[in-house]
UniProtKB/TrEMBL annotation:
This is Succinate dehydrogenase / fumarate reductase membrane anchor subunit. The chain crosses the membrane at residues 23-48, 68-92, 104-127. InterPro entries: SQR/QFR_C/D, SuccDH_FuR_B_TM-su. Keywords: Heme, Iron, Membrane, Metal-binding, Transmembrane, Transmembrane helix.
Amino acid sequence: MTAIPMPNERPERRPGVNWEKWGWIYMRASGVVLVVLIFGHLFVNLVAGEGVKAIDFAFVAGKLADPFWVVWDTLLLWLALIHGANGMRTLVNDYATNPTIRRILLGAILVSTIVLLTLGTLVIYTFDPCPAGSPADLLPSFCPVNQ
């Protein structure tokens, strides 16, 4: 026979990590950081300088040549993707009532998040606007071959 908890009593706590609590905390903390990262990104890309008409291959290449912007874009990518994936996970847990469909959807979210994080990070860290051995007529004007 189980005892009925009194109104002032706390329910018994299960051992282990409370993933829902940490997911909730992550959403709040990453949301605050993302606001700063996104508005900084928008300001530099759209307001400072010549505005949207200045965004081209050379602009992106120049940004990705600076370690500050590499870290900035990496943080933006990772925080935004994990933030979005955690939000989708919450929606699936709230609305997918069939356990098999829930597992499939959660697996799809996990796989797509890992693939996008991997590809995005590779692009940020391996971007080379002037690859060696490329024909000079295909390279941008700022590459040393054309100068």
